[in-house]
Amino acid sequence: MKVFLILLLIAPSFPKKIDNHIHEVWNNLIKPYKEQCIETSKVNLEEVNNMLHQMIVPDDESFHNYLKCIYNHLKMLEPDGTFNHKVILEKAPYVSEELLNTCVDKTNPEKTFAKKAFLLADCIVNGLITHDD
């Protein structure tokens, strides 16, 4: 029990990161739509920038709407609320088909498109994290 508590306390201090190439690809993808989606969703710019830098995907309505806006513009989210696997895998080659399938499955019970967008992003970001141990 003591070992578990110690691990629980120090685990957040393990450095986590996402490969710089992923940052580049994602930032280039969203660049044409970022300002518009920030404006329409009223999301905090700092939260947007922290998504990949600090691996934090905020679970709040404005961030959900921001992600939905981005995914709509990228044609990753279909009008019926399903995710276009082919488009996602083509535009985000750093996402494996296995990770995508796992993450899309986690979004399926959700009916709200913005919440689905959040669930997908959160799952993928967590799936891409590497630890420098």
TrEMBL record:
CDD domains attached to this UniProt entry: PBP_GOBP
State whether keyword Membrane applies: no
This one is known as Uncharacterized protein
Q: Which GO terms describe its molecular function?
A: odorant binding
Q: Residues of the signal sequence?
A: 1-15
The keyword Signal is annotated on this UniProt entry:
yes
Checking InterPro entries in the record gives: PBP/GOBP, PBP_GOBP_sf
List the Pfam families hit by this protein, alphabetically. Answer: PBP_GOBP
What organism is this sequence from?
A: Aquatica leii
User: Keywords assigned by UniProt?
Assistant: Signal
What SUPFAM superfamilies is this protein classified in?
Insect pheromone/odorant-binding proteins
